[in-house]
Design brief:
three-stranded antiparallel sheet; 60% helix; two-stranded antiparallel ribbon; 5 strands; mainly alpha
Length: 561
C-alpha cells in the first residue's frame, strides 16, 4: 500500500471517469465497501480497484473528509509525494469503523493493505484496543509514569499482529503436500535443522560478544550475567523476550534505533525457526537457550547504540541525521555479529538457508576491515571502527601470548594455518577470536599463495603446476565455503558422498549406523557433537573444561593427524 501508484494508462481512465461523472466522489462516500470496490474495479480492473478502494477508505477516516478526499485524488495522480505513516497511528484512525457492530462498514481492503494480513471484525477491534493502550501508556509515561508499561503495551500490540500474520502463513498438512509449496517446506526444514543445531547453549557470550568484551566491557559484563537469570526465568515459564523488548522499545532512543535500522526485533540467523519450541521435553530448554542468546545480543545492541549516540553527540556529530544514524547502526550491528549484506540483503533468507551464518561472516569482514570497504559509512563510524579493531586485536593477542607462555607451542601465530587464533590443548583447538580466525586464515592463504598444515606444520604452495591435484586458491576458497554450509545442505551433500569427511563415519539410509549418523548430522545440537569428538579422541582436552568453554561460545574442534 505504501508504494501504490496507478500506472499512467489507469490514471487517465481514472481522471476521465471523474470528469464524466462515472465515478462520483459524493456517491462513493455513501457506498458500502464492496459497492465502492466494484465501482473502482469497473473502471480500473480488480487489483487496482481493490487498492484504490483501500486508499479511498483510509481517507474517509480523517476528521476533515473533504481534505482527505482531495489528498487521495492528488496521491493517485502523482501530484504530491506519498507520506509514510506510523502503523499504530493508522490503526488508531481505524478505531470507530472496526467495531463488531459496524460489520457492514468494516474496511477489509484497508486493513489487509496496511497491515499485510486479512483480519476479522473482532480481531480488528482488538488491534484498535491494543493501539489505544499504547497511546494511554505513552501519555502516562510522559507524565512521569513507568516507561515499562508503555513498552509492554507496544510489545503486546506487536505480538498480536505478528501472531495474526504467522497464523495466516501457517500451512496445513494438506497444503504442505501440495507440490507448489515444496520451496517453503525446504526452507522451513532448513530453519528447523539450523535452530536445533544452534540450541542448548549460551554461546552468544563469547561468540557474538567477543568483540564487545574488549570494546564495551561494562555492557558486556552486565548483559552476560543476565543471560543466566534469563535461562532460569524462561525455564520457570516467564516470557523473557517480552521483558527485554519492553525495555528496549520504551527507551527514549528507540525511535533513533529504528531510524538507524538497529536489529533489535528481527529473528537472529542462528534461530530462524520457532518449531523446536513445540517439541515435547525439548521445547522449554530450546526456548531458554534461544532467549539467552537473542536477549544478550539485543541488550548489547541497544546499550552500545546508546553509548555511541553519546560519543557522537559529544564529538559534534548530528545524531538526528539519517546517514549518521544508519552508519552507527551498521557499526553496532556488525560489532554484535550481524553484518549487512548490501545489495544481497533482499536475498538474505535464501542465503540463510544455504549458509549457517552469512550475516555473522559479513560482520567479521566488516570488523577486520574497520568498515573501510562498506558504502555509506561516515568518518565518525570509521574512526570508531578503527579504535575497536585495535582494542580487539590487542586483547586477543594478549590472551594468545599468555597461553603460549604458559604452554609453549600451544598457539599458532602463522595465519596460513587453520590453527591460527586458537589455543591447542592436546588434539583440541579452542577458538579465542570470536569466529574471526577462520576468515583471517583463508584470506592469508589466498594472498600468500600458500598454506600451513595444522597437524604436520608443512608449508604447501597453492597453484603449484608440479603438484598433481595439489591445493589451489580456488580449492581453498571452496573448502572454506563448504565449511559454512547450513546443516540441511551440508547433510544432503554428505549423504550424497556416503561418508562424513571430518569423522570418516558412514552417512547413508541403508544401514542402522549410517542412518543414526545421518540423524546426528542433521539434528544433533552442536554441544552434543563436540562432546562426541572429545569422548572419542584419547588426546582431547579434558571433556568437562572443554564443554564449559564450548557452551559459552569458545568453539572447539578435536582431531589428530
Amino acid at each position: 500500500m505504501a508504494n501504490f501508484c496507478l500506472p499512467e494508462v489507469l490514471t487517465k481512465k481514472f481522471i476521465t471517469a471523474l470528469k464524466s461523472g462515472e465515478l462520483d466522489v459524493e456517491k462513493l462516500a455513501d457506498m458500502s465497501s464492496p459497492e465502492r470496490r466494484a465501482a473502482f474495479s469497473k473502471v480500473l480492473g480488480p487489483e487496482a480497484g481493490k487498492a484504490t478502494n483501500a486508499l479511498f477508505e483510509s481517507k474517509l477516516l480523517l476528521k476533515n473528509q473533504q481534505a482527505g478526499l482531495i489528498n487521495w485524488i492528488k496521491k493517485l495522480t502523482g501530484i504530491t509525494p506519498e507520506v509514510q505513516r506510523d502503523m499504530i497511528a493508522k490503526v488508531n484512525r481505524l478505531d470507530e469503523v472496526l467495531q463488531p457492530e459496524s460489520e457492514q462498514a468494516f474496511l477489509a481492503d484497508l486493513v489487509e493493505q496496511r497491515l499485510g494480513v486479512g483480519v476479522t471484525s473482532k480481531e480488528a477491534a482488538e488491534i484498535a484496543r491494543l493501539a489505544q493502550d499504547i497511546e494511554k501508556t505513552k501519555a502516562a509515561m510522559e507524565s512521569g509514569g513507568d516507561r515499562m508499561d508503555y513498552g509492554k503495551a507496544r510489545v503486546a500490540f506487536g505480538n498480536y499482529v505478528s501472531d495474526l500474520k504467522n497464523n495466516a502463513d501457517t500451512l496445513t498438512i494438506k497444503e504442505r503436500l501440495n507440490p507448489a509449496n515444496v520451496g517453503k517446506n525446504i526452507s522451513d526444514l532448513g530453519g528447523l535443522t539450523k535452530s536445533l543445531k544452534a540450541s542448548l547453549d549460551n554461546s552468544a557470550i563469547f561468540r557474538q560478544g567477543w568483540k564487545t568484551m574488549f570494546t564495551n566491557p561494562k555492557q558486556w559484563m552486565s548483559n552476560a550475567r543476565k543471560t543466566y537469570s534469563d535461562i532460569v526465568k524462561e525455564l520457570g515459564g516467564k516470557n523473557v523476550m517480552d521483558e527485554i523488548q519492553a525495555d528496549i522499545q520504551s527507551r527514549p532512543t528507540y525511535d533513533k534505533m529504528r531510524k538507524a535500522k538497529l536489529d533489535t526485533g528481527t529473528a537472529e540467523e542462528a534461530f530462524p525457526s520457532s518449531l523446536p519450541e513445540k517439541v515435547p521435553g525439548l521445547g522449554r530448554l530450546y526456548k531458554a537457550s534461544q532467549s539467552a542468546y537473542t536477549g544478550f545480543i539485543y541488550r548489547q545492541r541497544a546499550d552500545i547504540f546508546d553509548k555511541y549516540l553519546e560519543i557522537a553527540a559529544k564529538s559534534g556529530v548530528d545524531v538526528t541525521e539519517k546517514a549518521q544514524l544508519e552508519s552507527i547502526g551498521k557499526l553496532v550491528n556488525s560489532l554484535t555479529g550481524r553484518g549487512h549484506l548490501g545489495s544481497l540483503e533482499p536475498s538474505a533468507q535464501w542465503f540463510n538457508n544455504i549458509f549457517f551464518s552469512p550475516r555473522f561472516l559479513k560482520s567479521s569482514l566488516d570488523f577486520i576491515t574497520a568498515h573501510q570497504m562498506q558504502k555509506g559509512v561516515t568518518p565518525f563510524v570509521r574512526q570508531q571502527a578503527a579504535k575497536n579493531l585495535a582494542k580487539v586485536v590487542t586483547g586477543t593477542g594478549a590472551i594468545l601470548a599468555i597461553a603460549n607462555a604458559v604452554a609453549p607451542g600451544s598457539v599458532e601465530f602463522d595465519p596460513r594455518s587453520s590453527d591460527f587464533g586458537k589455543i591447542r590443548i592436546g588434539n583440541t583447538r579452542f577458538d579465542v577470536s570470536g569466529g574471526m580466525a577462520s576468515l583471517i586464515s583463508v584470506l592469508a592463504r589466498e594472498i600468500s599463495g600458500s598454506s600451513k598444515s595444522s597437524t604436520t606444520g608443512k608449508i604447501t604452495q597453492l597453484d603449484d603446476p608440479k603438484a598433481y591435484k595439489g591445493p589451489t586458491r580456488l580449492s581453498v576458497a571452496g573448502d572454506f565455503t563448504a565449511n559454512k554450509f547450513a546443516p540441511l545442505l551440508n547433510t544432503a551433500l554428505t549423504l550424497a558422498a556416503g561418508r562424513d569427511k571430518f569423522t570418516d563415519k558412514p552417512v547413508n539410509l541403508n544401514t542402522q549406523e549410517g542412518l543414526i549418523n545421518f540423524g546426528k548430522l542433521l539434528l544433533l545440537p552442536i554441544p552434543f557433537s563436540n562432546y562426541e569428538e572429545l569422548r572419542d579422541n584419547p588426546k582431547a582436552a579434558p571433556i568437562l573444561a572443554a564443554m564449559l568453554l564450548d557452551l559459552h561460545g569458545i568453539g572447539s574442534n578435536t582431531y589428530g593427524k
